[in-house]
Design a protein that fits this description.
With 76 residues, the protein is mostly helical. The protein has a domain of 47 residues. It is built from four helices and no strands. α2 packs parallel to α4 and α3 crosses α4. It is globular and about 50 Å long. The termini are far apart.
């Protein structure tokens, strides 16, 4: 049996529709490639990341890739 908190988390996770997912992934791809991402787009992603574990994971991964690329470029 699910607790009320678990039910609420499941409902929140279901709110990510296809168009939102595609938009988020497009923004994260630009972030990973160190292309321009607006503040509005960052806020948009963070709203989903605080409520959706998948988006949160995608954001962390994109940030790690971006940082690794910046470090490797400094070494070159």
């Amino acid at each position: 049996m699910y607790s009320k908190l678990e039910k609420a988390d499941q409902l929140i996770n279901l709110t990510l529709n296809t168009s939102s997912r595609i938009r988020i992934q497009e923004i994260l791809n630009r972030l990973t490639c160190v292309n321009e991402v607006t503040l509005e787009e960052r806020i948009y992603i963070n709203k989903f990341a605080t409520k959706n574990q998948n988006v949160s994971s995608w954001l962390r991964k994109a940030s790690r890739i971006q940082i690794q690329d910046q470090i490797s470029n400094q070494i070159d």
